[in-house]
Amino acid sequence: MLIPVEQKPRARSMQQSHVLQVAAQCLLVQEVYGVRPSHGLLVLAGGKQELVEFTPALERRLLNTMAQMRSLLRVDAEPGPHWVGAKCRSCGFRETCWKPQR
């Protein structure tokens, strides 16, 4: 079985965006190789490993998120402010991004 592995060497805990990235990789494995992975693996800081089960519910959530993203792209709309303090404060695109809430 092919198992996707996503590495997040600076992340200390699993985030929902990480879960969706692993789910997207599982979906790609299924589409390209014709084999559905039962799970993917997320490797965090310090080598901590988290198993992400590729369930039908996670696949639906991924597909819904992708549909929302495509809708925003079709109408050239911004996704709206989404302030992630630790990341946004240190980001080089902070001033060119949509206005973060401070």
**Residues in helix, %:** 40-55%
- Outline type: flat
Strand content of the residues, in percent?
Answer: 5-15%
Rounded Rg: 16 Å
What is the element string, with H for helices and E for strands?
EHEEHH
Number of helices, counting only DSSP H or I runs of 4 residues or more: 3
**N- to C-terminal separation?**
46 Å
Question: What structural class do the secondary elements suggest?
Answer: alpha+beta
Mean pLDDT: 87
Taking the sheet with the most strands, its summary is: 3 strands, mixed
Contiguous low-pLDDT stretches (5 residues minimum) are: none
Query: Strands across the major sheet, in which order?
Result: 1-2-3
By oligomeric state, this entry counts as single chain
Per DSSP E runs of 2 or more residues, the count of β-strands stands at: 3
